[in-house]
Write a structure and sequence with these properties.
about 130 residues; 1 helix; binds zinc ion
Length: about 130
């Protein structure tokens, strides 16, 4: 992966920026360069999602790699954004309060830490509305 592409992807993950097809109105995350339904007629534009969505499914992780061990147990879910795209992300919520269909919104949180170098990574997580 080239350096500019790497940084573009980071911006996308930080800000929930995907693409929207101006031809049919479908939204995609991660961004796509072509709309699978319109193909040659695709008119893709950068699109910033509202960050509001609904929990489709989730799993609670009780053991993880050492990168995330300080955060267990944590919930990983698939969120259907109101614009129609699905995103997998961590859900910040007590596991007994998790419900399929619950309303969520995106938030900017610490994702992990590189213990040796002290680098902290941030990204999008979801919290109950
Ligand atoms: Zn389309």
């Amino acid at each position: 992966m080239t350096v500019p592409r790497f940084w573009r992807k980071i911006t996308n993950r930080y800000n929930l920026i995907g693409t929207r097809c101006d031809n049919c109105g479908s939204c995609y995350f991660p961004p796509r360069i072509m709309c699978p339904s319109c193909r040659r007629d695709s008119k893709m534009e950068e699109y910033r999602f509202s960050g509001n969505g609904t929990l489709v499914t989730y799993t609670v992780v009780h053991s993880s790699t050492s990168d995330f061990s300080s955060q267990v147990p944590y919930a990983l879910g698939i969120v259907r954004l109101d614009e129609g795209a699905n995103v997998s992300a961590q859900i910040v919520c007590d596991s007994e309060d998790l419900n399929i269909g619950m309303r969520l919104k995106s938030t900017f949180r610490k994702i992990g830490e590189d213990g040796d170098k002290g680098i902290i990574y941030y990204g999008t997580k979801f919290i109950p509305v």
